[in-house]
Structures are given as structure tokens and as C-alpha cells.
């Protein structure tokens, strides 16, 4: 019996896109359920039963309900993907954990926050978000001068986790010109099989 | 030949403590190297060669150099710990990834930031840090009403990752009274073999 797979998503959310993107790259069908975030649906029942923190995305995959885009990538990789997407040896797994931390901290509070301010009018510290954006992009530029992918020699969940809000950085008025290696990495990821851009609906069931 | 293991640390850093704590719980010897963060040593060479983002802790374990406290926990668990500290099945691994994200985002920008303001005089938004602290602690209180540990039925790296800045929350003037289940969980973790408190040096080689 085919399992029901639903993704609670918001079309302007880079974290939601992150999961839609990986589902598409893995060729997994799903039903996308749009959450009315502008109307506050994510902060009320019944959505809060899916994620008490009131954030999208949430994946419901048969019996499994899971919030947090990084966690969902890890789940999908372990359950459905080739092992190269999430190598389990101590060092590569730790290096991936580091980039998942960077996605949750430096990228979320850097370029993603810069975009929250410009696109959604969030009352957050724009100068701080820009300073954090420059710091993480400077590091990524240096790192990606030495290698093609964030961890090892093949794409992993680390790349997928970091992609959306770096690709969306210009919407937050972050200038990408000083980071050509980062732009090349974005293009490399966008050339992978199954890639879908942010603003086109992913394939649904 | 015994491997040289060094931890670059700062004694008031909860992220440094996180790694010292897990090393102690695993009974692993190490040399602690105090970084003069007040003097800006972490933002200059040669430290920047260890971590270009200029953050402690950094672990040097033989040939491996690794930054980011969450990533170091993952490395140590995979390399040296019993499998129960980091189960690899899709769902528990993803649930752990979720709590590592929470440690990097909601806890770092909630109670850890509240403490950066009170203890270090950081010029950050105190009201926002307090709002975020209440949100994550409210979720943890609810979650820990249903279970003893953050993921599954045994302690994992998720508990170690979240412990320090929740234990330190009162230093940021976060009132823990509304979260008795969280306080019980803190006490449960502090009763595990090998536990060391923040302000006493961990066992060194």
C-alpha cells in the first residue's frame, strides 16, 4: 500500500523549499499543503499539533510526523536516498552536522533574516543580519575555493540545507558579487537531476 | 601510539562546556587550551586557521580538526561512544537532528543570547531573546512531560547539546519556575556517570 506523504509548506519559505527541493531530487511524490502563514494558521490549532513551535515545514510520511527542515532532510536521506547524501563515518557525518548548524544559526540569522526584513517587513536588526551574512558568505567563499561541495566530493544534505537562503540572499539585499565561488556552487547544485527552482511548484502526486 | 586530543575552549562558553561535558561522560582524556576571547584571540591568526568563523570550541583529535559544538558531539559519538548516544535509524537520527537545530537556533538565540547580554554585555535585543527563551522552554516543558529524554528512552547527543544553555538560563535572567519538567530533565542529566558541572575544570590528560 503506498504511503501517504504530505508536506505542510508555505510557498515563500526557504525552509519549506529546502524540503520540496530534496523530495524532487529524490523523485519522491508528495502532497503539498499550503499553510496560511500570513493569516497566522501556523500559530493556531490544529497546526500546532503538528509542530508546537509553529514553524513550517512539517513532513507527514505515513506514521512519521517531523518538523524542522534540517531534520527532515536527514530523515529523507536515511530512509530513501543513496548513502552518499548522508555518509555515516564519524568525520563526514560531523562535517555535515556542522553545515546543518550553520544553516540553523549563521544562515538563518544572516541572509534568511535579511530577507525576512526586506520581504516580510520583520522588525529585526538589519545591520546585524547583514554583518552575519557577510561573515558566513566570506567563509563559504573560502571553503568553496578548495572544494566543489560543502562536504567531501559529492553533494550531500549539507548542500541542500544551505542552498535556499544563500540563493535567496539577493532578496535580502545581500550583494553576492564578492563571493563568486559561492555563486558557482549555487549553479552546480541547480544543475543536479531533479532540481526545481523556488518559485515553481514541485511535482506533486 | 596514543592520539593527541586538544580542545580549544573558553571557560565561560556554554558551547565549550558542552564538549568538555561529553568528553568527560565518555571518559576521554584531553588537553584543554584556553582561548583568550576577551582579548580577541579567537578573531586573529593562528586561531582563525582552526576555525575561520572565529568561534570556540574547536577539537583537534589526531588528524581531525573540527569546529562547532554540535558537530563535535556527533563526531565523538560516532567515533567513541556506544551506539545509543546517536542512533542511526532514520527517525531517531532525524529527531536528534531536530534538537541539534534547536540548540543552534532557538537555544542559541534564546537563553544563550539572554546570557550574552547579562554576562558579557552584548548589544543584542534582550526582549527578543526573552521571547525566544519562553517559546523554546514552553515547548521543552511540554515535550519532557511525555518523556524522560529528548529523543527516545535513553540520553543522546541531543540532551548534551541542549543542556548547557538551558542550565545557564538563570544567568540570563530567564525564570525557570514555569518549567519544572525541564528542571527535572536537567537534574536527570546531571546525575549521569561522568557528568561535570560548568564551572569546575573537566578532567584533563
Oligomer: homodimer
Order of strands across the main sheet of chain A: 2-1-3-4
Mean pLDDT over the residues of chain A:
95
Overall structural class of chain A, as computed from helix and strand content, comes to alpha+beta
Question: Residue ranges of chain A: pLDDT <50 for 5 or more in a row?
Answer: none
One letter per element, helices H and strands E, the order of chain A comes to: EHEHEEHHHHHH
Percent helix of chain A, as a range, is: 40-55%
Strand content of chain A: 5-15%
- DSSP E strands of chain A, number: 4
| Individual helix count of chain A | 8
The description of the largest β-sheet of chain A is: 4 strands, mixed
What's the N-to-C terminus distance of chain A?
15 Å
Largest contact between protein chains?
Answer: A-B, 39 and 39 residues
Query: Per the principal axes of the C-alpha atoms, what is the gross shape of chain A?
Result: globular
Please compute the radius of gyration of chain A using only Cα atoms: 17 Å
Amino acid at each position: 500500500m503506498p504511503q501517504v506523504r504530505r508536506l505542510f509548506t508555505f510557498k515563500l519559505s526557504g525552509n519549506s523549499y529546502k524540503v520540496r527541493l530534496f523530495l524532487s531530487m529524490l523523485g519522491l511524490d508528495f502532497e503539498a499543503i499550503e499553510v496560511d502563514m500570513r493569516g497566522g494558521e501556523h500559530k493556531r490549532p490544529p497546526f500546532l499539533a503538528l509542530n508546537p513551535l509553529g514553524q513550517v515545514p512539517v513532513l507527514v510520511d505515513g506514521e512519521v510526523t517531523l518538523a524542522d527542515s534540517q531534520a527532515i532532510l536527514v530523515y529523507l536521506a536515511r530512509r530513501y536516498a543513496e548513502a552518499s547524501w548522508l555518509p555515516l563515518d564519524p568525520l563526514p557525518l560531523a562535517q555535515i552536522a556542522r553545515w546543518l548548524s550553520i544553516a540553523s544559526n549563521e544562515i538563518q540569522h544572516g541572509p534568511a533574516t535579511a530577507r525576512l526584513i526586506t520581504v516580510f517587513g520583520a522588525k529585526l536588526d538589519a545591520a546585524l543580519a547583514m554583518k552575519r551574512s557577510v561573515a558566513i558568505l566570506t567563509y563559504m567563499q573560502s571553503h568553496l575555493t578548495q572544494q566543489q561541495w560543502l562536504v567531501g566530493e559529492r553533494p550531500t544534505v549539507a548542500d541542500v540545507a544551505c542552498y535556499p537562503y544563500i540563493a535567496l540572499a539577493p532578496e535580502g539585499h545581500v550583494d553576492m558579487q564578492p563571493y563568486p565561488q559561492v555563486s558557482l556552487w549555487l549553479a552546480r547544485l541547480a544543475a543536479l537531476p531533479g532540481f526545481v527552482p523556488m518559485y515553481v511548484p514541485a511535482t506533486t502526486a
